[in-house]
Automatic annotation (TrEMBL):
Ranges that cross the membrane: none
Active-site residues annotated for this sequence: 100 (tele-amp-histidine intermediate)
Residues of the HIT domain: 5-114
Native organism taxonomy: Bacteria, Bacillati, Bacillota, Clostridia, Eubacteriales
Organism: Clostridium thermosuccinogenes
UniProt short sequence motif Histidine triad motif, positions renumbered to this chain: 98-102
Protein name per UniProt: Histidine triad nucleotide-binding protein
Record Pfam families: HIT
Amino acid sequence: MENCIFCKIIKREIPSTIVYEDEKVLAFNDIQPVAPIHVLIVPKQHIESVKKLTEKNASILMDIHLAANKIAEKLGISDKGYRLINNCGPDAGQTVLHLHYHLLGGKDLGPKII
Ligand code: 5GP
Ligand code: ZN
């Protein structure tokens, strides 16, 4: 998708620090981290948000969760744990309209998500 920041990162048109890649998923460090580990996990296929998931494309969620599992293992936070967050739509503060999950960890994140 033209003018999509994450599509440009996927195509290597914008630099990023990539921490994981497979056939369907790319994961890279957030440019403005809010935790010691703050990785964005995105599908290589442009899907705008959770709202645009259908029975045809929703299997990407499995790929994203399996990627999260591997990334946490690779970054050494698998045992301590981590938080996976998705923002969908304006009230949730979604700023990039390409489906993404925030993987946060590396410290005690507290009991609440807001
Ligand atoms: P949202 O608020 O849409 O859930 O999250 C978008 C995230 O993308 C934000 O945490 C923001 O810091 C990150 N972000 C925006 N532009 C870039 C970029 O060009 N590179 C990287 N690595 N992260 C970005
Ligand atoms: Zn995109």
